[in-house]
Each structure stands twice: as structure tokens, then as C-alpha cells.
Amino acid sequence: MIERLGSFMKRRTVARGGIIFAQGDVGTGLMGVLAGSVKISVASAKGRHIVLNTIHAGDVFGEIALLDGHPRPTDATAMSDCELVVIEHQDFMPFLRSEPEVGLQFIEILCAGLRRISEQVEDVTFLDLPTRLARTLLRLTAASAPTGKVAITQHEISQIIGRSREGTNKQLRAWAKQGWIRLERGGVSVLRSEKLVAVAKARRTS
């Protein structure tokens, strides 16, 4: 899809930790990731952040605000140095009307996003910390194959699984001691994915 929309794109670079857009910002454009990774999150009234999704190279985000023109419903933050492309609403909508197949692809993107959020709510509600953490590490590192390394902080991981930073760090250190993973500055590498797969298949309740 990104290739088909090339003539409308503008490039944008964002350094690691940079805010791409904030909840409530005017939503005028769809964004695609050429390089790097982005976290999509929301904040509670008490300032606690929950990560709803992580976006990697080849993926798009911001499609809801692009289509309805309403304010952004989430925050988007660069998890690493990112190179993005932006397609503005005013350019995209005429293209969408002339290319109905693209509209169908956007429906698929929206459905996939809703499915992912539903799965995350289920995980946070019913699964214990090790199971959630194993599933999250496997999903994140799958996007970084074949290296098995993902640029993410332990604090960001705790936001994704909806548990305390202390509990998350304790479990990560235990797996690192067992040789399943390697903790690095600003990243995690999975060394024994089969061990995490076994934990991820468990469906123990909290």
C-alpha cells in the first residue's frame, strides 16, 4: 500500500523518545514506518500509560484520524530513531474514492487493530505476568527477525503487559539468569525462544 501512495508522501524523521503525535492533536495524516518502531499508547487520568500497539517498518498507523478527521485518540512515540512517511487527509481522500480496493485494505487494517486490542485486553485480564511477558517478547522479536533483538526499555515492556515495572524487571532478570534472554542497554534479545513459547502457551489466571 505504501508504494501505491508514494506520490502523496512526505518524509519525516523522529529521534528515539520523540512525540510523533499526542492524544487530542488534530488528526490530518496517515503515517507509515520506513525504519524504526513506534509505540501507540493512552494515558489514564493519573498519568499511567498503557501501550496498545507497537508499529514496525512496513506498517502504517494513524488511519482512524485520517479517515474521520477527528482528534487523535492515542499518543504515538518513537521507540527508536524513526524514518516516517506522512499522507495528508486532503490528498488521501480523493485517492481513496478513485481506488476502492485501497478502502478494503484499510478496513482490513482497522479490523486487525481492533483484534489486537481485544487480544491485549484478554491477556491483561486473564493471564499472569510470565505468560503475558513471554507472549509480548515473542511478538516484539518476531518483527525483528532474524536477530531476535528488539529496541525497547523494560519500562516500555511493563506498559505493554500492564504490570509494574518492578515485577516485570524481576521476571526479565530471572529469564536472563537462565539464559533465555539477554538484557542490553535499551533492548532485549531472545536467546531461547522455545522456552518462551512454552510459557506463552500457558493460560493461567492471575
Helices and strands in order:
Elements lengths: L9 E5 L4 E3 L7 E7 L1 E7 L5 E8 L3 E2 L1 H6 L6 E4 L3 E7 H10 L1 H27 L2 H14 L6 E2 L3 H8 L3 H13 L3 E4 L2 E4 L2 H8 L6
Antiparallel strand pairs: 1-8, 2-7, 3-6, 3-8, 4-5, 4-7, 9-11, 10-11
Helix pairs in contact: 4-5, 4-7, 5-6
Structure notes:
The chain is α+β, with helices and mostly antiparallel strands and 206 residues long. It folds into two domains: 3-123, Jelly Rolls (Sandwich), CATH 2.60.120; 127-200, Winged helix-like DNA-binding domain superfamily/Winged helix DNA-binding domain (Arc Repressor Mutant, subunit A, Orthogonal Bundle). Helices cover 42% and strands 26% of the residues. The chain has seven helices and eleven strands. The protein has helices spanning 63-68, 89-98, 100-126, 129-142, 154-161, 165-177, 193-200, and strands at 10-14, 19-21, 29-35, 37-43, 49-56, 60-61, 75-78, 82-88, 149-150, 181-184, 187-190. A four-stranded antiparallel sheet has the order 1-8-3-6. A four-stranded antiparallel sheet has the order 2-7-4-5. β4 (37-43) and β5 (49-56) form a beta hairpin. The longest helix is centred in the middle third of the chain and has 27 residues, at 100-126. The radius of gyration is 18 Å and the shape is elongated. The mean pLDDT is 83.
